[in-house]
Request: fold
Amino acid sequence: MHPMGHVFRPADSIQAVKFRPAGPWALLVEVDSLAAVRALYARIQRERAGGWAPGLVDVIPAARTVLLDGIADQAALAAEIRSWSIAPSPPAAGRVVEIECRYDGPDLGEVARQWGIPPERVAALHSALSHEVAFCGFVPGFPYVAGLAGGREITRRDRPRTAVPAGSVALGDEYTGIYPRTSPGGWQIIGHTDAVMWDPGRNPAALLQPGDQVRFVDVTP
Amino acid sequence: MSGASERGIRVRRAGALTTVQDCGRPGYAHLGVPRSGALDAPAHHQANRLVGNAPAVAVLETTLTGVAVSAECDVTVAVTGAEAVVRVDGQPVRLRAATPLRRGQVLEVRPASTGVRNYLAFSGGLSVPRVLGSASADLLSGLGPPRLADGDVLQLGSPVSMERREGCALGELAALAVPGLVVHPGPRLDWLASPGLAALADGQWTVTQDSNRVALRLQGQPVHRRRGELASEGLVSGAIQALPDGHLVLFLADHPTTGGYPVIAVVDPACLPACAQARPGSKVSFRVAGGRG
Reply:
């Protein structure tokens, strides 16, 4: 089965949208799938490029929501978004970024157990999946790369590690995450990359941005 | 170094936590970058106005115990924010007023007696490398300059305005009055069990010692919230999360961009300076916007 096949169900549309005020100047738009988040976020980006909602400061996509921070009239904005007809955008819409990964992480065995396959097959399976950056958060440049939905979701460790090394490639829920710097973390580490996820001196500073397609390339020695 | 770059200040006593702050990094939250910036924005702007700077220029933000700096050049300084004794070479000077410092003079801000944070603006502004457009030290993600240490020298820019505000003292800002904080319901008010927001409006909360630039942590009669997990979602400054144990987290400028605990209410932005000045151990109460309280 296509690992992200579920996101193209006809039922996925932003008809199911809910608007939740977050203080006087922000609106949390709730939808029912990651595909709907992607479509809504892409539409907002397009509208902003055309000068829509000029006071908008931050737009934060997440798992099932998009937060709009910096709006004067929540009701008017909600009505306008409700009037949009948005088709789920195909996953090939974003740019493609390759991440070279050494599949040598300490939790390969646990991930293999959860997937019901031998540990030596984790690399082939993970790198064959279609991955897309759903959102960023946690620390600057940390991407939540969606690609495990539809049966490959991973349960986090019972006890988080106090220090997950920078460059660790780790799985949690339906996401692959890559740690831009050493931080605490409870995800299952399957490998490591030398890719620089975050460099404030670079433009853009974050290597991966919401909407990017990610291809994990197996470079395990 | 050229003569133009010799304007500066030297840190004599860095205090518990003194950082460089300006208006922070709006517009990068989708990359996981916190807003950051001065917690008490009106005090930040007031300090700059007093010395003739543009309001957004970088200043020093202290925490509870003040700071001492010496002038490496002639410079005009203003201290705003928390109530504190301010001295130049041991002689008291006015808070919230422009004070000229001669090269070599020492400006000391004593520990705050009311409030938490003082803001020190210098004519010409602090000249600190910017990261993503801001000189702010972001303590959550480590962006921006490190916290001040004894002996540090900070460069100052050239004053752009000849307008001096000496003799012009401004009033105390509302932040120190510590009123009931105005809160707006939602976005996850539905995670709060009966009696809903009344639990906030009727309760009294204590600011705990582990509060910082990321959040005020509030302890009181625990609120009753639904069990279960929420997918992570975007956060605004002032968001109040209800933790599984019923205690509250009220997010300030260095808050993470997303979070997974339900946000049951949001503090009105006009009350955020009061949050910035709420001391550990002090009591906080809430008033629901447009409603009872």
Q: What stands out?
A: Chain B touches chain A at residues 26-33, 35, 131-132, 140-143, 184-188, 231-236, 238-239, 256-258, 263, 266-269, 289 (CB under 8 Å).
